[in-house]
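Pilot study result, target chain (186 residues):
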Amino acid sequence: MPKGRPNTMNNYGVLLHELGLDEPLVTPLRERFLQPLMALLYPDCGGGWLDSHRAFVVKYAPGQDRELGCHYDNAELTLNVALGKAFTGGALYFGGLFQAPSALTRPLEVEHMVGQGILHRGGQLHGARPLGTGERWNLVVWLRASAVRNRLCPMCCRKPDLVDDEGFGDGFTREEPTTVDVCALT
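Predicted structure:
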């Protein structure tokens, strides 16, 4: 069975589309629950036009990934839910948008609690402090709006140069036949 990395920063985890969970689980979650909520909370950054996603579970444990450095997501909006297990440490920290990195001089820290999720803008600088003990598993859903990203790639901040890809790709679309695409510049 093929196994891709969840993202470029985490080494341990699984992409939900590789388990066949996009259509039966994640797409209905996005369309029925997250999009209406995000349209109210984040109308200015594509919350009402979410039309694709990348969903994965990441694992933090001693001897594996224990922390995650400061970064921003390849998404307009992100949902991050602590699934379990028992753990200490590993607080999330948040700064400003990646276009203003000096905002991280005084980050906001949020303790992850099993069964609770955090919604934030994909372009918001954030990371995870080192895990103290135990294991933490997180469900992360990168929510994407092609109406936003087709104008400006959120990773390279340029008009995207598209190449064909499978699945939802990076959430870009073309007016032509229904294909999914990634920005070749990132």
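One observation from the pilot: The longest helix spans residues 22-41. A full batch analysis is planned for the follow-on phase.
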